[in-house]
Design a protein that fits this description.
The chain has 20 helices and 32 strands. The protein has 649 residues and is α/β, with parallel strands linked by helices.
């Protein structure tokens, strides 16, 4: 991934009080898990969860791969996140909300309890939502989204959040697959100072289908005019006033579903990833504490949207289960200017900041010196999520944002894993930029071949998890065969199917794990397999490059060739960009990494969460018709601009 060879040691002052303060402490935990796997998990389950009735068995593998954890144990996730904190944290801020326009609201744990209870009563009493019913949320980033999640958990309903940037067709598909009873949405919200609408997308989705929906509950946020369907649509702001703020929580089984979250498959119908109650909330709390070292009066900001798993685990469930203050932000971190994120850190004394490499690169591109204008001394831990971070962005994040004192936890995980799997620990792990480092204690990862043979150091292979873990996916909603095939159908070790992540990885002699991207993002040029992430990292060594995306393109002789899309930084012009980048690739990786196609484009196709849609870029490289839904992109018009540039190149 990088020519960077140095290790960045943990800040010794920070490490003194860290949850896991050294690599010796890390190995002590991991060895305990290796020697007594079930005993390891039992110890943490007993410590972290307020059980309402004890479990019979830690792990039931009798129906693998449909594993069950803490069988017959009883709990309620809303109780884990709220009620148990009220004795000593009632007046502590639970959710610190900042709106796009700068409006701020601090919601204490006592207020959160009241508001969640009122919403739970509204769902239960007004709309007949009961245990096991599915509730779809199509919401902006406002506190009512968190209230709705926790209210569903309180009464035993299964929430399914659909990201507020998805199209009506995508929303309709998810409603129908879950057979949801009710949709909770908002009239709209604010983005870059302007109101936008959401309710109209719900109307369109239900016009197309979704016959299972009995009601639409609308939170009025921006008060723009919207259409109301008589008998179906209901005003949350009016109805909530009359609800009681006392609502006993439902007693749930460990394996009762907590939520569904749909991920787009490479083809066909989206997959409804199903997560259970006990295993998910246990790992959400443990990883919030271990990976971000959240304690006491810390203010934790994850910049994701609750429509993604990152928002589920590290905006709502993990921080609240840990009893900390979590920040919800409605806007974008570069509006009204490139200092918005850093001003928020300064104003709210944020201690942990967790964002995507794409956001880091944008913040760097738009204002590399902006962090120096603000007091960021409250920061303790910086995090990245979503894709490998290139060393150049890592260095700026570390030196300029973190003042060379904050550890960067470069986290690898998936919707299906429920929480972090491979990541540095801020008080323990010597960090290599661009490297995810080691699996967390209790997580058993191996890099294998398709035949289940362990790869040697330096030899790329398939990233697998060889033992079940509590927060893992339990099923694909309504499609158990797809679940088995998608996650346990490709790789077996010693004759036993293991979870294959779909990602490739390589470990060095010291055991440091580097993610090299999706296996289908590995380009095979004349028999040489190269990860796109590796090529992208090399291209980013050029200081004129703001962003880059690499895909494979069919080639008559080589099998595949390398196709590179480049966005140059403002003010940079490079008339000979192809030769220049190929010289760099030859230097960084070798002549085999030279690209046949290198084009400069005005931007990359990204979702509003910052994910680059590489499937679209592959289609453009192959001169195929774009069949993917582009309505969820931050700027759908960029696709046509890239297509035009590619044709002219």
């Amino acid at each position: 991934m990088s020519t960077e060879k140095s290790l960045y040691q943990p800040n010794p002052e920070f490490a003194k009080n860290a949850y896991i303060p050294s690599m010796d402490a890390y190995w002590e935990l991991q060895n305990r898990a290796i020697e007594d796997y079930e005993g390891f998990w039992k110890g943490f389950a007993d410590e972290k969860i307020d059980w309402l009735a004890p479990y019979d068995k830690v792990l039931d593998e009798s129906n693998a791969p449909f594993y069950e954890w803490f069988t017959n144990g009883k709990l309620n996730v809303s109780n884990q996140c709220i009620d148990r904190h009220l004795a000593d944290k009632a007046d502590k801020t639970a959710i610190l909300f900042e709106g796009d326009r700068g409006d701020v609201e601090k919601i204490t744990y006592a207020q959160l309890s009241q508001r969640v209870n009122k919403m739970a009563n509204l769902l239960k009493n007004e709309f007949g939502v009961t245990k096991g019913d599915r509730v779809v949320l199509y919401m902006p980033m406002i506190p009512e989204a968190a209230y709705a999640m926790l209210a569903c958990a309180r009464i035993g309903a299964v929430h399914s959040i659909v990201f507020g940037g998805f199209s009506a067709e995508a929303l309709k598909d998810r409603i129908e697959d879950a057979q949801a009873k009710i949709v909770i949405t908002a009239d709209g919200a604010y983005r870059k100072g302007k109101p936008y609408l959401l309710k109209n997308v719900v109307d369109d989705a239900l016009f197309r289908g979704g016959e299972s929906i009995e009601a639409v509950l609308v939170v009025k946020r921006n008060n723009e005019p919207i259409e109301w369907v008589e008998g179906r649509d209901h005003n949350y702001n009016e109805l909530i006033r009359s609800q009681s703020d006392v609502c006993p929580f439902e007693i749930m089984d460990s394996e009762d579903p907590l939520f569904l979250l749909y991920t787009s498959g490479s083809t066909g119908k989206p997959k409804g990833v199903q997560h259970s109650s006990a295993g998910f909330i246990l790992w959400a709390q443990m990883t919030t504490e271990w990976v971000f070292d959240v304690k006491g009066d810390d203010i934790f900001w994850c910049t994701a949207d609750v429509g993604w798993i990152t928002g589920h685990t590290y905006i709502v469930y993990g921080p609240l289960a840990a009893g900390t203050t979590t920040v919800m932000f409605e806007g974008v971190p570069i509006y009204p200017d490139a200092g918005r994120a850093w001003k928020m850190v300064q104003d709210h004394k944020i201690t942990q900041f967790y964002t995507a490499p794409t956001a880091i690169r944008v913040l760097h591109k738009m204002g590399k010196d902006e962090p120096k204008k603000y007091d960021l001394s409250s920061l303790k831990v910086l995090g990245t999520v979503g894709e490998p971070i290139d060393p150049a962005a890592w260095k700026w994040y570390y030196e300029t944002v973190g003042n060379s004192k904050c550890a960067i936890v470069d986290t690898w995980w998936q919707t299906e894993t429920g929480g972090h799997i491979i990541t540095p620990l801020p008080g323990a792990t010597p960090i290599k930029p661009g490297c995810a480092t080691f699996a967390l204690p209790g997580i058993m990862t191996e890099i294998l071949s398709y035949e289940g043979i362990s790869k040697e150091a330096g030899e790329p292979g398939l990233l697998c998890i060889t033992k079940p873990w509590p927060s893992m996916i339990r099923n694909i909603w309504g499609d158990p065969e797809r679940y088995k095939k998608a996650y346990f159908g490709d790789v077996a070790k010693d004759g036993k199917p293991v979870y294959f992540s779909g990602d490739g990885a390589v470990a060095d002699e010291a055991g440091y794990i580097t993610i090299v991207g999706r296996v289908d993002d590995v380009i095979n040029v004349s028999g040489h397999r190269m990860g796109t992430a590796e090529i992208e990292a090399a291209v980013k060594e050029d200081n004129s490059v703001a962003e880059v995306a690499v895909v494979g393109c069919p080639h008559d002789i080589k099998g595949e060739s390398i196709f590179i899309y480049i966005v140059l930084k403002e003010g940079h012009i490079n008339a000979d960009i192809k030769n220049h980048i190929n010289e760099l690739l030859a230097t960084e990786i070798g002549n085999i990494a030279k690209a046949d196609h290198i084009i400069e484009v005005p931007g990359l196709p990204k979702t509003r969460s910052g994910k680059i849609m590489r499937r679209i870029l592959r289609s453009i490289a192959k001169h195929e018709e774009i069949t993917q839904d582009i309505s969820t992109l931050e700027d759908p018009s960029i696709v046509k601009q890239i297509e035009t540039t590619a044709r002219e190149a």
